[in-house]
Amino acid sequence: MLHDHDVWIKIMGIDGFNFVHEPYQMLFLLAQGYFTEHDEFEISAFTDFIKEDNLQKLMIDIEVTNILGTSSTKEIDDYVNIIMNQAPIDIKLKSKKR
Staple partner for 25: which of 6, 7, 19, 41, CB 3.0–4.6 Å? Predict the structure, then answer.
């Protein structure tokens, strides 16, 4: 979503979108700030924008993940569903089991 402006716009249009895991949510919030100052995503500029070492490392790990091609609308919808609906339920179940 950082590399594809159309996907970014779609995600930003989803009311209440957020990541379950705090580090990913922090990167998302930082990306919102980054895009207020930059029109295009550049990994080097974004990692410089991130001040925390652990978040910089996470962003680099995400960036080097080899994702081929572009994602279809269906794939994006599936990812959003997992992030917003399935992941929170999995975390709640694990918490209850503990």
Answer: 19
